[in-house]
Write a structure and sequence with these properties.
Layout (H helix, E strand, L loop, with lengths): L1 E12 L2 E12 L3 E5 L6 H8 L7 E6 L4 H4 L3 E4 L13 H6 L3 H4 L7 H13 L15 H13 L5 E5 L7 H16 L3 E5 L3 H7 L2 E5 L3 E5 L7 H7 L6 H7 L4
Helix pairs in contact: 5-6
Protein name: Anchored repeat-type ABC transporter ATP-binding subunit
Family: Belongs to the ABC transporter superfamily.
Keywords: ATP-binding, Nucleotide-binding, Transport
Length: 248
């Protein structure tokens, strides 16, 4: 079943066309890697899917709804530096903020909300740190807080912006396993990353973006080096091709 449907989407920022004619669809149980060079528009696309940026053409639906109407079923894990870590709250409270769209701004969390937060903490193995102030956490622990915060919504679509950057191998493995479990439970995942080998290993499909979708297919279908060179806007990059295990 299609969860995310992006058709002919264009986004302008500061008078500049950042995305043009972007098509992308993701089904439940699919993990898709969004790959592209710096400035390709990956974060912009995630923010458009979240309804945080206006689109100037095309359409975006999540479970058949507009981004604004679907906000309560999209989990978003921003890049770690975008979150305010010196805010004096405990881990459990930070994770509860992920449910704001479900609870509403003026209501207090109920038992359902507390249970969802507890389950999310368990899934990222953070129950021992639930009462720790977020400012005292390591980088890997902070990443797990952000993932738990997104999971507390029990989303049908999970958007991850560079979830593995700066993480040690054990933390990467915990998250990789978790994302696999989530897709097995029908969650659709769209993840930006610069870690191409890891993306090729873990994602069902890769979407190569550079202002528009240059290629979209399974890692096996994208073995032609010309596709990667076109996506990254370079004439020739042995290192890029080598890191992908793509042969000329
Ligand atoms: N608020 C803004 N106003 C104007 N231009 C912007 C704004 N935000 C981003 N841009 C520009 O839009 C383009 C796409 O940025 P975006 O952050 O989506 O790229 P990205 O693919 O996520 O890059 P990276 O891999 O470096 O994170 C860049 O050229 C960026 O400078």
């Amino acid at each position: 079943m299609t969860v995310l449907n992006v058709t002919g989407v264009a986004v302008e920022l500061g008078g500049r066309q950042v995305l043009e004619d972007v098509d992308l669809s993701i089904s439940s149980s699919e993990q898709v890697g969004l790959i592209g060079p710096n400035g390709a528009g990956k974060t912009t696309l995630l923010r458009a899917v979240l309804g945080l940026l206006p689109i100037t053409a095309g359409s975006i639906t999540i479970d058949g709804k507009t981004p604004q109407d679907a906000r309560g079923s999209i989990g978003y894990v921003p890049q770690r530096h975008e979150f305010v870590w010196d805010y004096p709250v405990q881990v459990r409270t930070a994770v509860m903020t992920g449910r704001t769209h479900r609870i509403g701004w003026l209501r207090r969390p109920g038992q359902v909300d507390r249970d969802a937060v507890q389950e999310a903490l368990e899934r990222v193995d953070l129950t021992d740190l639930a009462n720790r102030p977020i400012g005292e956490l390591s980088g890997g622990q902070r990443q797990r807080v952000l993932v738990a915060r997104a999971l507390a919504l029990k989303p049908s679509l999970l958007l991850l912006d560079e979830p593995f950057t700066g993480l040690d191998v054990p933390t990467q493995e915990i998250l990789t396993r978790l994302f696999k479990d989530l897709t097995a439970e029908d969650t659709a995942i769209l993840m930006t990353t610069h870690d191409l080998p890891a993306a090729a290993d873990t994602c069902h499909r890769l979407c190569l973006l550079n202002g528009t979708v240059v290629a979209d297919g399974s890692p096996d279908e994208l073995r032609d080096p010309a596709i990667w060179l076109r996506a990254f806007g370079v004439a020739r990059s042995e290192q890029l091709l080598h890191s992908l295990g793509v042969t000329r």
